[in-house]
Amino acid sequence: MTASRSNPSSTPRFALALGLAAVLALTACSGGAEDEGDAATDEETEATAEAGEDGKPGEEKKNEAVPVEVAAVAERRISASYSGTANLEVPADAQVVAKTGGVLLRVLVEEGDTVEAGQALAQIDPERTRLEVARAEATMRRLQANFERSKELFERKLVSADANDQLRYEFESAKAAYDLARLELSYTTITAPISGVVAQRMAKPGNLIALNAPVYRIVDNSYLEAVLNVPEREMNTMKAGLPIRMMVDALSGQVFEGEVGRISPVVDSQTGTFRVVGVFRGQDKLRPGMFGRLNIVYDERDAALTVPRIALIEGSGESAVFVVENGKAVRKVLQLGYINGEYAEVLGGIEAGEQVITQGRVAVRDGAEVEVLNPTAAAPAATAVADAANR
What we know:
The N and C termini lie far apart (145 Å).
């Protein structure tokens, strides 16, 4: 019986071949999975790119319109004026002083009372002065009698001319002393030198009043002045008689009418200004010392093309506005005339009926889309154009 023997080198080779086959199979499976995952990721990215902001495919993000408010370009009355501030002054301001000394017996008027020129204001004790008047009168009467007798004797050639002249001089001196005493007596009654309102009382009854001591202050409120220091560039526009509108802080909401009274012909070389004096007559509510805001109107136009000042864009040495045309903002450069209050006169660059942006112009750029929040603002423009056509 013959026994068979196996080949020792065949078993390891078979095992190696099996291992390589397994590795290749695992690699093929892994690569296929990665390819499928990459493909899914690419499809998701492409779908996201095609989708819009709201998740709807195929829509692009649109530019949002800027919300704005507009105003119509229309004809209005506009005036050219110069504005300034000044305190009201009273030219007729009198300080009443005592022309004689003595005890103040009583006061006849108080602060705020209206007085006339020559009206009695207070009374100083007149007794001492009255006695002086009586003594001066007695002396005068005696010398008058002596002079009259001397004159009769002189006419009869019984006294010399020198003696008669001496008595005449003494009589005239005594008469002057008597008149002076009477004047001093009249000074015991303190009177108003001007008509006006009692602004201040400085003395009380019982006070000993010295000569030339202040007792009252009287002002005439019916005539007030306001002095403006106007730049010299306005010299040609200022004229006497121009109307003035004034508002005071103490009486808000009220407008007081006046006029230019005087204009200084001299310009102050240090400040470059000249004085313009505004006059206000018969304004009972005004008081000296009030702070006033004055507006001197030197030219006025009834039908001027205007835009609101709030719509103006200043820069680069020019003035411009944004005009709404076909839903977009268009920048236009303007030629301006008078600027007064809320409006500016337009001499060129825009036409009546156009709509200028007043609110939201800071966020607007030339050519930007806008959304008008107050479309009814176009109505005044249409009315203004119609009125202009009918004229």
